[in-house]
Amino acid sequence: MSDEKAGHIQQGENTARPQVALNEGRMLELRLAKVLVFGICVCAGLIAVSLAAMLLRHGTDRVSFTEFHPENSPTSIRGVVDGIRAMDGRSWLMLGVLCVLITPMARVAFSLAAFAKERDRLYVGITLFVLVVLGYSFFFGKV
What we know:
Helices cover 71% and strands 0% of the residues. The chain is mainly alpha-helical.
């Protein structure tokens, strides 16, 4: 009777389980990285298009670098949405900036879902706390 039939574990057999866990962890890292790369690519595209639109529309305007006029830029999400409907380059630029701010929040939310799927209560709690702090600062923070 061989060792396999007797229920003995061969040397290579006990390494399969840690390898599976390592692969799952690596897959999670790759998914999170893809979320960040996708978010940054979208942000870069929005910012590039908005800069091109602003140059086409305001390229010949005289610029003063000593004065700042924030009334020309949208300062609320509603203002950004209204400006996008009007095809205002400043609003598209602000959408790109909002995307830059939202991308890390999306990564944390994705991590939260992944930890919940793994039933890792400690990391779910920590990640949920981080997400709440990020959300609070995003929606209620003052500029």
